[in-house]
Design brief:
disordered C terminus, 18 helices, 1% strand, mainly alpha
Length: 428
């Protein structure tokens, strides 16, 4: 595709993104499906654009999207929501990863010619959720803030598992020594290091703002610092997404932190985005996520019908096993509608797609099989998640989830009257 045509296409995609967003507001049909479809038509169907032509720029772009989305989301999180969400986030993230890895590994062992280690690698690659998809959908529905925080944090925290464990297993399969105790200690260090780096980065940036007030006059200085923090934390082999998330949470909660013994050590300057700045960042996030989902569609490799069908079947099974995971990990007082929403939030992202290419690059015998199944699961879980989201918003499948999560439970909405999460639309 020539440069002029590519520029025309970019402009077309921006208009298409706005149209699909408006369509979503009117019909609750998620725009993610349309953007994925456009990407698939441009890439694997008609071969108009080759995603490999983007090279490293594609990886940089996906990380850029995550930084912006997590930064914007973290500013809205408050410590009372965080405390409530932390109770279930660790359990939900860990249990979902373990169950997903075991189920996918068992299915791969049973239905493919992959050996045990290759099947386990496939399962651990698919053990997390996509921050971009989860954050986008969770913020478009009327649920408790604690539920939104739990889902956003799960998608970020799962990166610790889905990056560390598959890479360790792939290295072991190619001749390296696998040290289980060392692996889990590395995961713990990566998690704690990211948390400390995020909170510490927030303190450092607030101190800089108090010393150099001219930084407040620019709208992009704080996200720029978030980029620097992300890169430094990744270079230290910690989790960049978690660091950015807690960096923005620290910025948004400074007034709550400036109490007691923390008052003299914390700067007086806080970061509060104005309406103009919020609109500015929202537009940037909108543009980035539009191109992100088109890029995901471009990156799909679907070249084996049998393995594609197996990947779709695995996705269906994962939606079923997610229900007992939510039952076991979620707070029993969580509204029934919120638990139903948590049960469908398992889309797999581009991080899984990148990891799926590593076995083939390392010369593993089942590398091509792992890659094809992973791409099929990514597409299937993303499409199914958005379709189920639409049906749940319309209260078409709420009765099914009531079979597992019990009768509706009205809940006092923060700062307002009782919010009925039983399935009736607000105000009806």
């Amino acid at each position: 595709m020539t440069t002029p045509l590519l520029i025309i296409l970019i402009g077309f995609l921006i208009f298409l993104g706005h149209y699909l967003a408006q369509l979503f507001q009117r019909t609750k049909v998620p725009d993610v499906v349309g953007l994925l479809l456009v990407g698939m038509l441009l890439g694997p169907v008609f071969h108009l654009i080759d995603p490999t032509a983007f090279g490293r720029a594609g990886r940089v772009f996906t990380n850029l999207v995550l930084v912006f989305i997590l930064f914007e989301s973290g500013l809205e999180v408050r410590f009372n929501q965080l405390r409530s969400a932390l109770r279930g986030t660790a359990a939900l993230t860990t249990l979902n990863f373990i169950v997903t890895a075991l189920v996918v590994s068992a299915l791969a062992q049973w239905l493919t010619d992959l050996d045990f280690l290759s099947s386990l690698i496939l399962g651990t690659i698919l053990g997390g959720t996509s921050s971009a998809v989860v954050t986008t959908l969770a913020r478009e529905v009327h649920i408790l803030p604690q539920t939104t925080t739990t889902l956003v944090m799960e998608s970020a925290f799962s990166d610790v598992y889905t990056l560390g464990i598959p890479i360790a297993l792939i290295s072991f399969s190619t001749g390296a020594t696998l040290n289980v105790a060392g692996l889990f200690s590395q995961l713990l260090v990566a998690l704690v290091g990211a948390l400390l780096a995020g909170a510490g980065g927030g303190y450092v940036w607030l101190t800089l703002l108090s010393k150099v007030p001219t930084l407040l006059k620019t709208r992009f200085s704080t996200p720029a610092f978030a980029f620097i923090l992300y890169g430094v934390v990744e270079l230290l082999q910690f989790s960049g997404p978690i660091a950015v998330l807690f960096f923005s949470i620290t910025l948004g909660n400074l007034p709550l932190l400036r109490r007691g013994w923390l008052r003299p050590v914390l700067p007086d300057q806080t970061v509060e985005l104005t309406t103009v700045e919020k609109d500015f960042f929202a537009e940037i996030v909108f543009l980035l996520r539009t191109f992100f989902f088109v890029y995901v569609g471009l990156s799909i490799v679907l070249d084996d019908p049998e393995l594609i069908a197996l990947g779709v079947g695995m996705a269906l099974v994962l939606f079923v096993v997610r229900i007992p995971v939510v039952l076991a990990a979620a707070d029993k007082t969580t509204p029934q509608f919120d638990m139903a929403l948590m049960s469908i939030m398992i889309p797999k992202g581009l991080g899984a797609a990148v990891l799926a290419t590593l076995p083939a690059q390392r010369g593993m015998p089942g590398g091509a099989t792992i890659q094809t199944i992973t791409f099929a699961v990514i597409v299937a879980t993303t499409v199914l998640c958005t379709v189920l989201f639409f049906l749940l918003e319309k209260r078409r499948i709420l009765g099914f989830y009531q079979l597992f999560f019990g009768p509706p439970r009205p809940r006092e909405a923060p700062g307002g009257p009782v919010a009925d999460h039983s399935g009736a639309a607000p105000g009806k």
